[in-house]
Amino acid sequence: MWTALEPPATTVAPGDSAVVRLRVRNTGDTVEEYRLSPVGDAAGWASVEPTVLRLYPGTEGTAEVTFAPPRTPDAVAGQSPFGIRVDPREHPGEADVVEGRLTISPFAEMRAELVPRTVKGRRRAKGRVAVDNLGNQPLTASFSTRDNADAVTVEANPTAVQVDPGRAGFAEVQLTSANVSWFGGIRQHQFNISVLRSGDPAPQELRGTYVQPSVFPRWVLAVGSVLVAAAVAFALIWFQHDVGVKSQASEKAPTKEEPLPQGSNTPLPSAPPAPSKQPPPPSAPAPPPPAADQPKPKDPGGGGSGGGGGGDSAPKPPKYDPNKQVRIQSGLGYLLVTATDQKAEGRYVYAAPTSFNTPPWDQFWHVHPLPNNEFAFTSWSEPWAVADNTREGNQVQMWGASGGDASLSNGSMTANQKWSIQPISGGDGFVRLVSRDDNWCLSDLTPNDRKNLQVAEVRPCGALPADQQRWKILQ
Known about the structure:
Elements: E1 2-6, E2 9-12, E3 18-25, E4 32-40, E5 46-49, E6 52-55, E7 60-67, E8 78-88, E9 96-104, E10 110-115, E11 118-120, E12 124-133, E13 139-146, E14 152-157, E15 160-163, E16 168-177, E17 186-197, E18 204-213, H1 218-240, E19 327-330, E20 335-339, E21 347-352, E22 361-362, E23 365-370, E24 374-379, E25 385-392, E26 395-400, H2 407-410, E27 419-423, E28 431-435, E29 441-443, E30 454-455, E31 457-459, E32 471-474
Parallel strand pairs: 2-9, 11-18
Antiparallel strand pairs: 1-3, 3-7, 4-6, 4-8, 5-7, 8-9, 10-12, 12-16, 13-15, 13-17, 14-16, 17-18, 19-32, 20-21, 20-22, 21-26, 21-30, 23-24, 25-26, 27-28, 29-31
């Protein structure tokens, strides 16, 4: 048997096709049937026609091999070896593989979008730019932002990403308003982000909307004005009102005067002798001085300086070893868990029953002390990621530390990835986990829907029942 490819190497563009010829000659002395099949990395895009050649001794047959790679990231640019297997039916021991080389041409295609297109926040808001590489070669995309006059500042971090074929890259967008809107309803600010692919002359423009609600809605101003007006009117009425108190007392009638007796022949009695001098009354004795060993009365408040005694001192937070595994349990008895079968970055943090202790569920954490009495939380299965509370609304997800691995000790990560642990006085070891980004408390929302797992969120401290916002770190 003799075989040959014509040509032995070819080039094809994704979405197009290329054809090579396979020649097979029967060098034996009997009629032979040859079965043809493609093998190798490019076999999924190859087809052979016909798939069977029946040849008499000394004759030659030809088959066409067509390559049609799709215009998708699966057809990676570069050289891809292939082979055509030739199996003789009568002499299977003489099977052979004819090898060739297929070169796939590169193409570039990018898709960028703002997720979400509308962000909301009173002073700050966050979004993400997602870049999908739909081409078959790596690409580099850079980001540039434009501020909305002096009203909003827009920043992208990082300013450039490199994305492999078929993968997506992300950049965080931070929007900061120059002024806080106290009253007046909702303000909307438009902002733009330009995404430029390396080698592309024109960038792709992304437009988004920053919705800035006022701190107090309009009805608060209206109700406040009505209350102030009512208070002023009440004060005026009160001070101008005559209470009208009348006295029940009456004037006493004058008594009849009796005439003094006039002269009588009886002589007046002599005046009594002058009283002798009386000694002054004795002065009251002075109180005795207090005894030297008489105890002082106790301070009912337990205060006072010195000695450190009296009163309940604030509970001190325990120390945490970043190498020790812990579990974090809410006041409702639910544990913080992550699912190891979810995407590597952006896993949700759930509040789950204690029975969720087998894969894919991970209920173990590491507490990393940071400077300024702050902490970061990493899961056992994802030690490079930290609990982050502002990537998607108020929900808590696991994202890579913004300052790299070093930030797990020096605290150089952003505020939305750092927490404070605030012990609760008399709380039997319970603490509050407070985000350093907005000083909101980590909350267990299980009561919202006990049939389905609830993603942990940050909510204003005190806005929910105490058991939903207090946690115990089980070491």
